[in-house]
Specification:
The complex is a heterodimer of chains A (about 500) and B (about 290). Helices cover about 35% and strands about 20% of the residues of chain A. With about 500 residues, chain A is α/β, with parallel strands linked by helices. Chain A folds into three domains: about 15-90, Alpha-Beta Plaits (2-Layer Sandwich), CATH 3.30.70.20; about 110-305, Rossmann fold; about 380-490, Rossmann fold, CATH 3.40.50. In chain A, helix 4 (about 125-135) packs parallel to helix 9, helix 6 (about 170-185) packs parallel to helix 7 and helix 12 (about 395-410) crosses helix 15. The longest helix of chain A has 18 residues, at about 260-275. Chain B is α/β, with parallel strands linked by helices and about 290 residues long. Chain B has a single domain (about 15-285), classed as Rossmann fold (3-Layer(aba) Sandwich). Chain B has helices spanning about 15, 40-50, 70-75, 85-95, 110-115, 115-125, 170-180, 190-205, 215-220, 230-240, 270-285; strands at about 60-65, 80, 100-110, 130-135, 140, 145, 180-185, 210-215, 240, 260-265. In chain B, the strands form two sheets. In chain B, strands 2-1-3-4-8-7-10-9 form an eight-stranded mixed sheet, with helices on both faces. Chain B has a two-stranded antiparallel ribbon with strand order 5-6. The radius of gyration of chain B is 19 Å and the shape is globular. The termini of chain B are far apart. The chains are: A alpha/beta (about 500), B alpha/beta (about 290). Chains A and B meet through strand 1, helix 1, strand 3, helix 2 and helix 3 of A and helix 2, strand 2, helix 4, helix 6 and helix 8 of B.
């Protein structure tokens, strides 16, 4: 039906209705100041009666109907305004312009953040310096022993570097504030220990799903629950891998000294940008609180991977689109005119929710494969005395320092034993372990937990070598003698 | 397209409806039930955006989870649909990373004040420069009508099958007590006032809290024999008392009582970021260059 036309103009204005999206709530009809609307006798395809202009001569085009309509199905306009708008209508929309962002090529560190020189600091402080050197300019944290020194140092350092520290109300808040900041364009760090790490789990999932880069530090302490706040453990290693719900892959780095807290922190930030994914930085209480010599290089000697911002125009850019050669989408940030949508729901290439198994399959496979396909690039193992080894001790973090001394003692006794220290624990470097299992008789794995990463080791060697765990519930570290004893026992 | 408008005007419809340029049109129709009020609040928000004359590229919408949490996904702005209850801390990070952005948190009563209650309290305390739009429909709509921290005493919900016996939160009082600089409440019947409050909120610096009372016809109204969305709007019309500057302690809501609406609080207080910059300027001196993003 045609209530209003440009030629017949009975009232001061008119209404326009997209009948197919009307849900028949009657808000427009009931609150029309001139009572000019009524329900049609017809149904729309969804089965709703929609409004029609019953008394066109009464319509003023006031658009109160439009303001009430919860379905965006109706609006009103004065004839006068309509004519003016039509006269003013631009001939064409402006052409979208591409942003000129640099490509993702390594650069030097920003000098403002780099305290070049020799320092005598603990692992927590060194980790903080690593983050600042890596370009981190936003930290949200919540105090928790034994990680607090990292945020304390950041709070002290960042005002003169140019960035923000905010102590949030809890770890749930800090682990998502960093994601807001990442979408605001910052490199971010969140820091915690056991109980706080548990609270952060949901947001690891969000960061995975929305491909939000950032580094998450867990200075591990004894658990479960409040456990041993001031004493070490390595018992969150499986939590780092599997703690959030759903299927995903994770990257986790494990330093064993304050120097590595600095060096590997930069690597963690770089990996986070390369793979557009949260990276776990798994320290422990001893590494966090151990004071040692730390050498911070000159800014130009520090290689920084910048964010992979898109250079596409708004019209071409799809926030979560990738190519078969590169499973990592280009990023953007809020405020650049791209009008992005980011959701934790299963989403399509535009970031729009699309809840069906096909989209889920495509998305989850890509999120997993962008890391699995690069597992070989993510191998970082320090190997000692491995060439002729019949026994290999595999250890990481603080435990690796004790294990290495035990291995050296055993070598002096003539035992052919080697030491393997993965610095990237997730993805687990199973390939190298499998390769060695062809000639190695026994793997020994001491950990400050009741046997977590040893499960991965067993899975990797698939029975072709013996795998022995030396568990420790945490609270202290292994005695070197305990490891040595096991090496001697196995060698006989 | 089916329409009852003259054919020569059809081509204008998508672009002319004042709300349409603000929406991701390919996602319409939305998921909200017939006579749900969330869409009406979105209309008001778009009118406020138009009036504000702000650069839309500099506005971001952050939502949590739930029916109102879907607002972010329909807005043609930079938009973030985060986790349940955590829209405010996400928005805090976004705002601090880029203070030039106007960050609007648009979410429901359960999301913002139950699971997200702690964040709400602390963002208000800090006077974080965020505009919070809380669509209060007294229930958890998306999960099927469970009791919310706003459900009035006596109202039936699936997890309060014999009627709610818990004291509900008085949200304007909560926001006021925590230090919000702007606190208003309107219902979706008060579309013009709600749009005006949103405009004022967009222009205000600091923690702005706007409560929009809205019907959940499917899971609150019908279940409590209050009729449909339109009946709720009529109820709001008849039972609202406009009291600008009202003492927020006295604006708590009951199942069938009056609804005090109006602008309750409008005051000045330094935002978190302004306070930080001022503080560091004083304590660090010339070595400090004010942070601006």
């Amino acid at each position: 039906m045609s209530d209003s036309t440009t030629t017949e103009r009975p009232g001061k204005g008119t209404v326009f209705v997209r009948t197919e999206i009307c849900k028949g709530c009657s808000f427009c009809i009931d609150f029309c100041p001139t009572d000019c609307l009524a329900f049609s006798k017809d149904f729309n395809p969804k089965g709703y009666h929609f409004p029609v202009l019953q008394t066109p001569e009464a319509c003023t085009g006031c658009d109160l109907c439009g303001l009430y309509c919860p379905d965006f199905a109706i609006y009103g306009e004065r004839w006068k305004d309509l004519d003016e708008r039509k006269a003013k209508r631009p001939a064409a929309l402006p052409t979208p312009v591409a942003k000129a962002w640099p490509a993702q090529v390594p650069t030097a560190a920003e000098p403002a953040g780099v305290l070049t020189g020799l320092h005598f600091i603990d692992g927590d402080h060194a980790a903080c310096e690593g983050a600042i050197a890596a370009g981190c300019r936003f930290v949200a944290g919540y105090p928790i022993t034994p990680s607090t020194e990292i945020v304390e140092r950041f709070a002290l350092r960042i005002p003169t570097v140019g960035g923000v520290f905010i102590q949030m109300e809890d770890e749930l808040a800090s682990s998502i504030a960093v994601q807001g900041a990442a979408w605001g364009g910052k490199k971010t760090l969140s820091v915690t220990s056991g109980p706080g790490f548990s609270l952060m789990m949901e947001h690891i999932g969000l960061a995975i799903m929305t491909e939000t880069p950032g580094v998450w530090v867990d200075v591990q302490r004894g658990g479960p629950s409040t456990g041993l706040p001031t004493l070490p453990a390595q018992s969150d290693m499986m939590q780092a891998r599997w703690g959030s719900h759903g299927d995903y892959e994770i990257i986790a780095l494990v330093p064993n000294s304050p120097q590595e807290c600095f060096d590997l922190m930069i690597k963690a930030f770089n990996l986070s940008e390369i793979y557009r994914t949260p990276v776990m930085f798994m320290m422990d209480e001893v590494v966090g609180h151990m004071v040692e010599r730390v050498e911070i290089p000159a800014p130009e000697q520090i290689q920084i991977i910048p964010r992979k911002f898109t250079s596409k125009s708004k019209a071409e850019y799809r926030s979560f689109a990738t190519t078969p050669d590169d499973l990592v989408p280009e990023m953007t940030k809020a405020g650049e005119g791209y009008r992005i949508h980011v959701t934790g729901l299963t989403h399509d290439e535009r970031g729009y929710p699309a809840m069906n198994s096909a989209t889920q399959d495509k998305l989850v496979r890509r999120l997993i494969n962008k890391i699995r396909d690069h597992a070989d690039d993510l191998v970082d193992i320090i190997e000692d005395y491995v060439d002729d080894a019949e026994i290999i001790v595999v250890s990481y973090g603080i435990t690796s320092r004790i294990a290495k001394s035990a291995v050296e003692d055993a070598r002096q006794r003539g035992i052919k034993v080697g030491h393997l220290r993965p610095r990237i624990l997730w993805p687990f470097p199973g390939g190298r372990m499998r390769e060695l299992a062809k000639r190695v008789k026994t793997f020994i794995m001491p950990e400050l937990n009741m046997g977590q990463m040893v499960i991965e080791l067993e899975r990797a060697v698939k029975g072709s070598a013996e795998v022995i765990s030396i568990p420790h519930a945490g609270g202290s570290v292994h005695e070197p003698e305990a490891i040595l004893k096991k090496i001697v026992e196995v060698s006989q | 397209m089916t329409t009852n408008t003259a054919p020569e005007l059809l081509r204008d419809i998508d672009t002319v409806n004042p709300v349409m340029p603000y929406l991701r049109q390919e996602r319409i129709p939305h998921i909200w039930c017939p006579s749900c009020g969330i869409g009406t609040t979105v209309n008001c928000f778009t009118r406020a955006l138009t009036e504000s004359g702000m650069d839309l590229d500099q506005i971001a919408v952050v939502s949590g989870i739930g029916c109102t949490g879907r607002v972010a996904g329909y807005m043609n702005l930079d938009s973030f649909h985060t986790t349940h209850g955590r829209a405010i801390p996400f928005a805090t990070g976004l705002k601090l990373a880029n203070p030039k952005l106007k960050v609007v948190v648009y979410s429901g009563d359960g999301d913002l004040t139950a699971i997200g209650g702690n964040h709400f309290v602390h963002a208000a305390r800090r006077n974080m420069d965020l505009m919070i739009v809380c669509v209060n429909n007294f229930t958890y709509g998306m999960t099927g009508g469970q009791v919310a921290p706003t459900t009035p005493i006596g109202a039936k919900q699936t997890t309060m099958p014999f009627g709610n016996f818990e004291q509900p939160l008085n949200l304007p009082f909560l926001a006021d007590a925590c230090g919000a600089v702007y606190v208003a409440r309107w219902t979706v019947f008060h579309v013009r006032q709600l749009a005006k409050a949103m405009l004022e909120g967009l222009r205000k610096k600091g923690f702005v809290f706007i409560e929009a009372i809205s019907p959940c016809p499917t899971l609150y109204s019908r279940r409590n024999k209050r009729g449909d969305g339109i009946d709720e709007l009529k109820y709001y019309k008849q039972n609202s008392l406009v009291k600008n500057g009202a003492n927020t302690q006295e604006v708590g809501l009951t199942f069938d009582g009056k609804i005090v609406v109006g602008k309750f609080v409008d005051r000045e207080r330094p935002t978190w970021l302004d306070a930080m910059n001022d503080h560091f300027k004083q304590s660090i001196g010339p070595h400090y260059s004010p942070y601006g993003g």
